[in-house]
Write a structure and sequence with these properties.
Blueprint: H1 2-5, H2 22-33, H3 36-48, H4 52-80, H5 84-94, H6 102-134, H7 143-154, H8 157-177, H9 179-187, H10 190-207, H11 211-219, H12 228-242, H13 248-253, H14 262-290, H15 301-312, H16 316-349, H17 354-368, H18 370-373, H19 389-416, H20 419-425, H21 431-456
Bound molecules: 4-fluoro-L-phenylalanine (PFF).
The site of 4-fluoro-L-phenylalanine (PFF) has 16 residues, from helix 2, helix 3, helix 6, helix 12 and helix 16.
Length: 459
């Protein structure tokens, strides 16, 4: 019987070891959350969707939908203590529903694989930019020169493929080392260091003389510029940036010691993640306006603005090098959460060692990644539905798979699981619990489905 497996305390043990402390868990989830999504993606999609109004919708989504979904996901993970597929099947049965909930886990495993296939390519760009920083290629360069440098690099598929390969090897290496030795050590210093460097860059952004304009772009809402598709993109970004809706946080929750408060941990992660994204916007947009660049220029935005700043400041070579190394680390710690659900599944169900599982998943993602590698060069003209292969994989994962995953996760936690189970995981039935339950029962699923159907044109 499953409930017997739960033992005396009513709780199962994790199969893959545990985080060594509450702080380690917060660091790991923050490490997963803070990544390219904050510094590369948030500014470029905010820019492409008109700024202020997009940012407001994004913030609403983060706090009213993202946070309750994150709590739901962690509590499911800790209750099940298996990989996301097995956890959903096990809890589905245990809570008197069905094992078919496992498909939510499958959706997540696939989502992680698809997201990492393009994430790794962009992370490869940041790796290549470490080399360009060290060799001083930005020093004194004009906006046009920096733009040309970026176009020349991404236009050469061999260089992009090499960087993607190196990054996937790095990600596979850490996942292969396992929960405590691998994941935990990688995240300890990255987030604080990134924060310090972003603050230094903020100083530069203030000195450009366009700080007011840049910040105004971020906060002045122009709702006329916002379409339903833009709202869906903002919501997708909320999911993407918090790493929720696909089982990554569920997999991390499976290694969470019982005494840790899920509410406090989630709040800490959401605040850190949002802070870094907003900071990135406050750094990028003043540089955009000070140099007459286009805020809607797309995925290259950060690679065309920050090098410009570094090239003009004293000590820029050192700052640029540190910054891009930190970005590599941020991407690295995020990539682990994307692989972990698939890796944990192979270990538990296909009898693989962690090392074998990591290599298998890594190779698969590496191969799929070539779709994105080629989207910026050889196959740039190959467009369907939303655009290039990259555009489609990005749209499908962030704006379809993650939000749908979020609907199922919140419905499962707040409707299917019994009150006792969720209150037990969330530390009692006080006001905070009631607020979570209301948001997870009604607000999150209804809002997600509403936006989703508005954007795809059904409503
Ligand atoms: N949250 C990461 C970022 O903002 O860069 C991306 C991500 C990592 C998404 C892990 C999903 C995930 F499971």
């Amino acid at each position: 019987m499953l409930s017997q497996q739960a033992g005396d305390s009513g709780r199962r043990a994790s199969l893959h070891g545990n985080w060594s402390s509450r702080m380690a868990f917060i660091l790991a989830v923050t490490g997963s959350a803070v990544g390219l999504g904050n510094i590369w993606k948030f500014p470029y999609i905010a820019g492409a969707n008109g700024g202020g109004a997009f940012v407001i919708v994004y913030l609403f989504c983060v706090f009213l939908i993202g946070m309750p979904v994150m709590m739901s996901e962690i509590l499911i993970g800790r209750r099940g203590r298996r990989n996301p597929i097995a956890t959903m099947a096990l809890l589905g049965e245990e809570e008197g529903s069905s094992r078919q909930w496992q498909w939510v886990g499958v959706l997540g495993v696939l989502g992680g694989i698809l997201i990492l296939s393009y994430y790794s390519v962009i992370a490869g760009w940041t790796l290549a930019y470490v080399e360009r920083s060290i060799t001083g290629q930005f020093t004194g360069a004009s906006a046009a020169e920096i733009g040309a440098l970026f176009a020349e690099f991404t236009g050469d598929w061999k260089q992009v493929a090499l960087a993607h390969t190196v990054f996937m090897a790095l990600a596979t290496l850490v996942v292969a080392r396992g929960v405590e030795r691998g994941l935990e050590q990688a995240v300890r210093f990255m987030v604080p260091a990134l924060l310090v460097l972003m603050l230094a860059l903020l100083g530069y952004a203030i000195s450009t003389g366009s700080f007011g304009r840049g910040v105004a772009f971020l906060i002045e809402p122009n709702f006329a510029a916002l379409t339903w598709d833009g709202v869906l993109v903002a919501m997708g970004q909320a999911f993407f940036t918090l790493s929720i809706g696909m089982g990554a946080v569920m997999a991390y929750g499976a290694y969470l010691p019982e005494e840790t408060s899920i509410m406090h941990a989630s709040a800490a992660v959401v605040i850190a993640d949002t802070g870094i994204a907003v900071l990135a916007g406050m750094v990028i947009f003043p540089i955009v306006f000070a140099n007459g660049l286009d805020p809607a220029s797309g995925p290259g935005l950060v690679f065309e603005t920050l090098p410009l700043a570094f090239g003009q400041m004293s000590g820029g070579v050192v700052f640029a090098t540190i910054f891009f190394i930190l970005l590599v680390f941020a991407a690295w710690t995020s990539s682990l959460g994307l692989m972990e659900p698939a890796v944990a599944w192979l270990i538990e169900h296909r009898n693989r060692t962690r090392r074998q599982a990591a290599v298998m998943v890594g190779m698969l993602i590496w191969i799929i990644g070539f779709g994105t590698v080629l989207s910026f060069n050889e196959l740039e003209g190959f467009r369907f539905l939303r655009g290039t292969i990259y555009d489609n994989v990005d749209y499908l994962t962030s704006n379809v798979m993650l939000p749908l995953g979020g609907v199922f996760i919140s419905i499962f936690a707040a409707w299917v699981m019994c009150r006792n189970s969720t209150a037990d995981e969330l530390g009692g039935a006080g006001n905070a619990y009631r607020a979570w339950r209301f948001l997870a029962r009604f607000v999150a699923p209804i809002a997600i489905l509403f936006v989703f159907f508005q954007a795809v044109g059904v409503i």
